[in-house]
From TrEMBL:
Keywords: ATP-binding, Kinase, Nucleotide-binding, Phosphoprotein, Transferase. GO terms for molecular function: kinase activity. The keyword Nucleotide-binding applies. Gene3D superfamilies: Histidine kinase-like ATPase, C-terminal domain (3.30.565.10). Its EC number is 2.7.13.3. It catalyses: ATP + protein L-histidine = ADP + protein N-phospho-L-histidine. This is histidine kinase. Residues 2-50 form the Signal transduction histidine kinase HWE region domain. The lineage of its organism: Bacteria, Pseudomonadati, Pseudomonadota, Alphaproteobacteria, Hyphomicrobiales. InterPro entries: HATPase_C_sf, Sig_transdc_His_kinase_HWE. The keyword Chloroplast does not apply. It holds the Pfam family HWE_HK.
Amino acid sequence: MFDGRLDALARSHKLLVDARWEGAEFSTLARSQLAAYLTDGSQRLDLQGDPVVLPPDLATPFGLVLHELATNAAKYGALSSGTGRVLLRWVLDEENGRRQFRVTWQESGGPPVMEPEKTGFGGSLIARSLPGATVHREFASAGLTCTIELELPEDRDDDAES
């Protein structure tokens, strides 16, 4: 577990270094964290969303959250069975001049899901790693759905053009 989290941090930091620490594109971040499940043309993971660049202070913890969601899915959820699937989708909306980023991790086709009696370290990491985020996890019997919403800072490129 600890080694996996260190690897997740390393992958996030590599993306940031490659981008001169200016941010990480979410799709690239997701693909790097979920690479083990995206092999061999597998249709088990479906990633959907437009390009969104996360600032460095959000890219690193988001990498950890994605890693933790995938680890839990592989142990207990949709990725633990041959028929399970995960839909990861994201959208960036402008609401009242604010950039609202919403990410949904939705599992299906795996074993029945039950809400854990206690929140472990991984659950706490998912719920509390992203500063200012609202995280909602729904443990439906058909599969876990985790929704993350947070406000992103103003896009610096937009500021430069003004």
